[in-house]
Amino acid sequence: MKQESPPLHLDIKAFAQAAKAIGGRDLLSKYARLLAETHGLGAENPLTWWAQGELRRDLAGSEQVWLHLTVATGLALTCQRCLGLVDVPVAVDQYFRFVDSEQAAQAQDDASDEDVLALSQDFNLANLIEDEVLLALPLIARHETCPVEVKLAVADPAFEAVSAQKRQPFAVLAALRSDKSN
């Protein structure tokens, strides 16, 4: 089943019980927080996603609701070395286990290897997609090799020359002191 955009309301338990899979291809412009991260650039970039629901049995034999999510896109970010634009590919391949309540999800999430979320009959898949892409962004976006020469000097000779020409306040005070003693 191909979709243009993720459904805003998904009954996650029914989705997993039916072992459904949905996917789609959206424009980045449909995701406001991602677009803000790129300062409005690349709004026409595609974001491809796929979600598969399933039931798995735990060690005790109880059924658990799972969701497998994959997302692929590219974002135009600012290179932190040269301050130019750098296209950063972002890929998400994540499994989520669902539990009955938000309290149970919070209690189990820290101790679990997988991400634990609360079951909902009104689950917003688009928000999850956007959250996971934001979490997958690199801490520091940069080119492997910047297309322009990066100035790595910490001192500017022109600044040093202007600084030397300025009157030194303590020298002025010393001159005043010597004038008084004469």
Architecture overview:
It contains six helices and six strands; from the N terminus they run βαβαβββαβααα. It is an alpha/beta fold. It has one domain (2-136). Strands 1-2-3-4-5-6 form a six-stranded mixed beta sheet. A hairpin with a 6-residue loop joins strand 4 (63-78) and strand 5 (85-99). The longest helix is centred in the last third of the chain and has 13 residues, at 169-181. The protein is elongated, with a radius of gyration of 28 Å. It starts with a strand and ends with a helix.
List the defining traits of the structure above:
single chain; 182 residues; alpha/beta; six-stranded mixed sheet; 6 helices; elongated
